[in-house]
Write a structure and sequence with these properties.
The structure is a single chain. With 189 residues, this protein is α+β, with helices and mostly antiparallel strands. It has a single domain, classed as Ribosomal Protein S5, domain 2. 22% of the residues lie in helices and 31% in strands. The chain contains four helices and eight strands. The chain has a four-stranded antiparallel β-sheet, with helices on both faces. A four-stranded mixed β-sheet has the order 5-6-8-7, covered by helices on one side. A hairpin with a 2-residue loop joins strand 1 and strand 2. Helix 3 packs across helix 4. The longest helix has 14 residues. The termini are far apart.
Length: 189
Amino acid sequence: MAEQQAATKPRDARSARPPRRDRRDVPQEPKEFEEIVINVDRVARVVKGGRRFRFKALVVVGNNKGKVGVGVSKGQDVQTAVSKATDVAKKNLIVVPIVNETIPHDAEVKVSGAQVLIKPAAPGTGVIAGGVVRQVIGVTGIHNMLSKSLGSTNKVNIAYATIDALKSLVPKDQWLNAPAKKPAKKEAK
């Protein structure tokens, strides 16, 4: 009997440990928001001893159901800049009115030198937009839209102009000339 116990005992103490779990094995809960890093820049501050370098990140977050936000932040390294920008974007979320997978009406907004024009499109058109506007629209849940970016090519200003254009949209039931809803008929007694 002592021979069987000796045979089942591992020779090495390391092999007696349970197998190590990788981080990939841990089940992760699905994220509420999709995060896209649009741009990362290295910026410098000139001081007496030379230049101090930091990183500036532009991040857009959205839930593909009409909520979207943009954030810009700086950090000592890229990872901290991106995480800080993500937190800023989540604090500045807006709700976009979506009608039949498009926007209710066209809008044109100018922020600093960047000007963004967005228009509704027929079903099946897709998102016709370039660069930053496409990435911002991509996380909103809008599937058919036309856009044009005019003026400045500064990515931060284009992102803010796109958010302001989406913020300026008014749902169709709140239009001034929208047909009034008929009140429910009252039963005669």
